[in-house]
Design brief:
By secondary structure, the protein is an alpha+beta fold. Helices cover 43% and strands 21% of the residues. It has 5 helices and 9 strands. It has a 3-stranded antiparallel sheet with strand order 2-1-3. Strands 4-5 form a two-stranded antiparallel ribbon. A two-stranded antiparallel sheet has the order 6-7. α2 runs antiparallel to α4 and α3 crosses α4. The two termini are 50 Å apart.
Length: 191
């Protein structure tokens, strides 16, 4: 084994590759915008085994002891996206005009069905047979709940409000994550 080197992006400091003067020499022509820093065998091993991406900062090979700001932001944004999805698909509490309160499943299949019913009678403006006619929606327990045309409209508005509320909150929280300037600050921003 020979001298170890790390090829890095001279703008971001991100490591682009590791080289060994004997086993895997540096290319004769380096990529534009790159730099090289010599490292010890120990630094090379530590960098390879670190859960955090090593970088070059001011010409010094650095192995972070924690996530970078960008990594923390990516992780926290993923957690927020999952929480938003859960909020969108949480059971919807709804009371129909007859006063029956139930929670309705909001998984993607059910949302598609609710939307198709709403579209059938509102967007296409198909006549509901009569004001006494009802359409059954099934709650989280599988119990049929009779819905009138007005109930269907109000139900869909409630679905839309739940989804819009989750998306608005996600937008705000993601903006806070993007504006945070430290890993600690990012990690404190939760759903």
């Amino acid at each position: 084994m020979g001298q170890k080197s790390a090829l890095y992006n001279s703008t971001t400091g991100a490591i682009m590759g590791y080289y060994d003067s004997v086993d895997s020499p540096l290319p004769k022509t380096l990529p534009a915008g790159s730099g090289v820093v010599d490292i010890t065998d120990s630094e090379w091993q530590s960098g390879l085994s670190s859960p955090y991406a090593p970088t070059v900062v001011s010409g010094v090979y650095t192995i972070p002891s924690g996530p970078t700001l960008a990594a923390a932001q990516t992780t926290q944004s993923g957690l927020v996206a999952s929480a938003c999805s859960a909020a969108e698909s949480a059971p919807l509490a709804f009371t129909n005009a007859a006063g029956v309160s139930s929670s309705f499943p909001m998984d993607s299949g059910k949302l598609a069905k609710y939307l198709s019913i709403y579209t059938k009678y509102y967007v296409k403006e198909l006549p509901f047979p009569n004001s006494a006619t009802t359409y059954n929606f099934y709650d989280v327990n599988g119990k049929a709940v009779a819905m009138t045309l007005t109930d269907i409209e109000n139900f869909f508005n409630s679905v839309e409000a739940q989804v819009d509320s989750a998306l608005a909150k996600q937008e705000t929280v993601l903006a806070d994550i993007a504006a945070a300037t430290t890993v600690t600050a990012v990690q404190t921003i939760v759903w």
